[in-house]
């Protein structure tokens, strides 16, 4: 956990779905990170995972009833004292009861008394998730400031497959960590959903341009910063599409992931996803050039020791295209610049020239001299804007930088 979020008081609500067993892993993530966790299951959840399991993992007694230990007023106290409430899984029934303010068990009472950020991780069959009633309940909860994570796609109960699967517990934990970190900065409620109702597109990773079926031209981008941006946006309430180029990281919870390899594929996926988007953040590192010819078979090493000549052609400039042909009026375009200084200018001089050339609204500048930043957990940057401003972001987590970027995007939404 980031500084300022250790030992937070977390309520883990568990509703009655088969995915309840996965919440055990989420509980372990919280407790091993030093949090004080109170598990509040529904009566139906206890049919899937019994109270002794929750008690053993949390180190606390567990009950679904508001009638136990009445002298401690648990139906009010638990919610009032929480720093974060996470409901995982959140069934269609639980979402409906929460949206309508029902208080017929300990968990729904807790949700009504909580004055902290609330995160719901839905899990149900596809038809239930897509039903207009569920979608309306989700919209209501989001409008009130809750973070409702989009469910994952995959295998459901039995032979069914579709959208409605509980996201990976580790990724739910990452969203919760983002929300907690934000509340540590902005106060107990955390202002978690300033991107609610916004659709944002983030690109991540590095493209590959194939010379033959085995070899390619590529770069060192790991995708870590793009994934941090996607997670941060989910924690702030956005609908997020992540276009990932050759990234071997788990899908962030609540994010639609589109996987690509080449710069042409990246361009098509980003432009397609950006139609109607409120913001596009190009954190990916697309190759500037691709081979003029690609061999359909593996190129063999020459017997005489000679090296092949590789002729290149320039790839499309995705950032410049997006900046020039905005997906919609008011769409905020953010670029990244991995720069090194040279005889012709400093890192910032090169970056300012790139900002003017590309025409984007914000440019996040990394000094990558000596291979800094790539693959590292931390980052430092300067965020330039088209009005001439510059904001220094000191070395810290890539998540922290992601929130600085979204702060500046959100500010542009407000000034419109």
TrEMBL record:
One of its GO terms (biological process) is pantothenate catabolic process. Residues 195-411 form the DNA/pantothenate metabolism flavoprotein C-terminal domain. Residues 200-416 are annotated as: Phosphopantothenate--cysteine ligase. Its cofactor is FMN; Mg(2+). It holds the Pfam family DFP. InterPro entries: CoaB-like_sf, CoaBC, DNA/pantothenate-metab_flavo_C, Flavin_trans-like, Flavoprotein. Binds 1 FMN per subunit. Keywords: Decarboxylase, Flavoprotein, FMN, Ligase, Lyase, Magnesium, Metal-binding, Multifunctional enzyme. Residues 9-173 form the Flavoprotein domain. Residues 1-199 are annotated as: Phosphopantothenoylcysteine decarboxylase. In the N-terminal section; belongs to the HFCD (homo-oligomeric flavin containing Cys decarboxylase) superfamily. Catalyzes two sequential steps in the biosynthesis of coenzyme A. In the first step cysteine is conjugated to 4'-phosphopantothenate to form 4-phosphopantothenoylcysteine. In the second step the latter compound is decarboxylated to form 4'-phosphopantotheine. Catalyzes two steps in the biosynthesis of coenzyme A. In the first step cysteine is conjugated to 4'-phosphopantothenate to form 4-phosphopantothenoylcysteine, in the latter compound is decarboxylated to form 4'-phosphopantotheine. This is Coenzyme A biosynthesis bifunctional protein CoaBC.
């Amino acid at each position: 956990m980031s500084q300022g979020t250790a030992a937070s008081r977390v309520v883990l609500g568990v509703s009655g779905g088969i995915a309840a067993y996965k919440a055990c892993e989420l509980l372990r993530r919280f407790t091993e990170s030093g949090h004080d966790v109170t598990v509040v299951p529904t009566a139906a959840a206890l049919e899937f995972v019994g109270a002794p399991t929750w008690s053993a993992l949390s180190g606390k007694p567990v009950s679904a009833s508001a009638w136990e230990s009445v002298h401690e007023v648990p139906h009010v106290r638990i919610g009032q004292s929480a720093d974060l409430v996470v409901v995982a899984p959140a069934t269609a029934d639980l979402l409906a009861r929460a949206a309508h303010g029902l208080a017929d068990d300990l968990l729904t009472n807790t949700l009504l008394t909580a004055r902290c950020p609330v995160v719901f991780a839905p899990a149900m069959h596809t038809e239930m998730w897509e039903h207009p009633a569920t979608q309306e309940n989700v919209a209501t909860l989001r409008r009130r400031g809750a973070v409702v994570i989009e469910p994952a796609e995959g295998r459901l109960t039995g032979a069914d497959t579709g959208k409605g699967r509980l996201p990976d517990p580790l990724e739910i934990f990452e969203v919760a960590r983002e929300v907690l970190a934000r509340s540590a900065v902005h106060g107990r409620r955390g202002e978690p959903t300033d991107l609610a109702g916004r659709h944002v597109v983030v690109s991540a990773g590095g493209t590959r341009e194939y010379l033959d079926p085995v070899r390619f031209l590529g770069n060192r981008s790991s995708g870590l910063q793009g994934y941090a941006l996607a997670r941060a946006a989910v924690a702030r309430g956005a609908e997020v599409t992540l276009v990932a180029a050759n990234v071997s990281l788990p899908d962030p919870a609540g994010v639609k992931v589109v996987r690509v390899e080449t710069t042409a594929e990246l361009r098509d996926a980003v432009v397609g996803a950006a139609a109607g988007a409120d913001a596009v953040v190009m954190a990916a590192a697309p190759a500037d050039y691709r081979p003029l010819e690609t061999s359909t078979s593996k190129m063999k090493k020459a017997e005489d020791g000679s090296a092949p000549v590789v002729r290149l052609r320039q790839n499309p400039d995705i950032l410049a295209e997006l900046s020039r042909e905005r997906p919609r009026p008011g769409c905020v375009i953010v670029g990244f610049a991995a720069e090194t200084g040279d005889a012709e200018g400093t890192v910032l001089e090169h970056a300012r020239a790139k900002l003017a050339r590309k025409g984007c609204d914000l440019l996040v500048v990394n000094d990558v001299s000596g291979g800094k930043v790539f693959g590292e957990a931390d980052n430092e940057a300067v965020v330039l804007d088209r009005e001439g401003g510059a904001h220094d972001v000191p070395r810290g987590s890539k998540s922290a930088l992601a929130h600085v970027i979204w702060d500046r995007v959100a500010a542009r939404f407000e000034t419109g």
